[in-house]
Amino acid sequence: MARAANPRPPVPRRVRLLIATRKGLWTLAGDATRRVWKLAGPQFLGNVVHHAMLDPRDGKTMLAAARTGHLGPTVFRSVDGGKSWKEAGKPPAFAADSGRVVDHTFWLTSGHASQPGVWYAGTSPQGLFRSEDGGATWEGVAGFNAHPQRKAWCGGDQDGTPDGPKLHSILIDPRDPMHMYFGMSSGGVFESTDGGADWHPLNVGVRADFQPNPDIEYGHDPHCVQFAGGNPDRLYQQNHCGIFRLDRPATRWQDIGTGMPKSVGYVGFPMVPHPHDANTAWVFPMDGTDVWPRISPGGKPAAYRTRDGGKSWKRQAVGMPKAQAWWTVKRQAMAADAFPTVGVYFGTTSGEVWGTRDEGRTWKCLAAHLPHIYAVEVA
Amino acid sequence: MAGYSVAIPSPLRSYTRGAANVRVAVAAAAPKLADVLAALDADYPGIRFRMVDEAGHVRPHIQIFVNAKVERNPAAALPRDAKIMIVGALSGG
């Protein structure tokens, strides 16, 4: 695949964060200096909002995946940048005779630039859905949901996350709408080259330490998979068993977690690429030892940044608490803006939003006292 | 045509424009609970899927009473003029 020209987008004049929480959706708006922030919300108070995304193609369509403790899963959509919302007429749901039921929609991805109105959704349990009308109605992608290997790829109930097995990290190649990837926890990373009609596993080189055979073809646990900034031939992956990079057309992932300090480890949930530099990315390590506490190792939170494609990692914690801060940052809860000097933002399950306006050199708490944060996205 | 009174719990009142009780009409000669749920969805689009999943089962944290008795089977026959009460189960909130 030839690498497409990727002109740098215009410098943003502001930044807005969509903060999806266990109890509703908030927005956090920053001005051009990214020093002044204003919190607004909640919308959908009391709803479990797993993900909220702005459509970058039109800058005004927004989708939010929600359910409540009592009520089944749905998708809300806005066509005015989040001012007003309407429920999808047909939310993601499996075929009635499939024997499967969507517990929640977990992941939302807007489609290719050449396909306005197309969105994809990943669900728990693992299902892939597509909308062609801006999120108003959804159909299952039979190429995956009815794939003869789907059950083998996904495993059973014990092979998912504590909140249920999930399909996530839906990536559409910006050069080719037929070329797609997604991740499954569990299942691994999968690729389609025909618009989702068929899929194949793409996990060679990725460890699966929790399996009897760690070199299996599928059954892995990618926590988050992202394109490198400006280079869709490069994928970064934060996995249950390490940090990996894949440079297509190769099919073997490279272990790039070996440069992380042993005392910190290579476990985490989010993986955030620098939007303008394919060699730069951030992770936010979690303690994966013992009973898998999944909190900042030693109570000392830090982001780690690579600037050389994962060969080395630098601790970035200036401004964060130096001790007794037991944060968890979930896989959708960290994102970067598109300013020339990139801002990076993350939310914790204890309801704090932190950000940096200097690519991680210094961090500041931007909001606190929110509910358990599931997702932070730049809108 | 049979008419049924349905009590709506607060999590579902965004569909009924705030109404705590609604009345729906069912044309079936031998009405079932499923007919009432379908009639509710016709009057208040989207409400059914929030309480009944795609396999046709009442969701785990929704409870339905028919004449004060728990009824979770959508195929259950309904007495004429049965009073139906939908509630959010304690487990879901």
Descriptive overview:
The complex is a heterodimer of chains A (379) and B (93). Chain A is an all-beta fold and 379 residues long. Chain A has a domain at 203-332. Chain A is built from 2 helices and 28 strands. A 4-stranded antiparallel beta sheet of chain A has the order 3-2-1-28, with no helix packed on it. Chain A has a 4-stranded antiparallel beta sheet with strand order 4-5-6-7, with no helix packed on it. In chain A, strands 8-9-10-11 form a 4-stranded antiparallel beta sheet. In chain A, a hairpin with a 2-residue loop joins strand 9 (119-124) and strand 10. The longest helix of chain A has 5 residues, at 150-154. Chain A is globular, with a radius of gyration of 19 Å. Chain A starts with 14 loop residues before the first strand and ends with a strand. In chain A, 54% of the residues are buried. Chain B has 93 residues and is α+β, with helices and mostly antiparallel strands. Chain B has a single domain (2-92), classed as Ubiquitin-like (UB roll). Chain B is 17% helix and 27% strand. Chain B has a 5-stranded mixed beta sheet with strand order 2-1-5-3-4, covered by helices on one side. In chain B, a hairpin with a 2-residue loop joins strand 3 (62-66) and strand 4. The longest helix of chain B is centred in the middle third of the chain and has 11 residues, at 33-43. Chain A binds chain B through residues 68-72, 74, 87, 89, 91, 93-96, 98-102, and chain B through 9, 11-12, 45-46, 49-57, 59, 61-62, 88-89, 92-93.
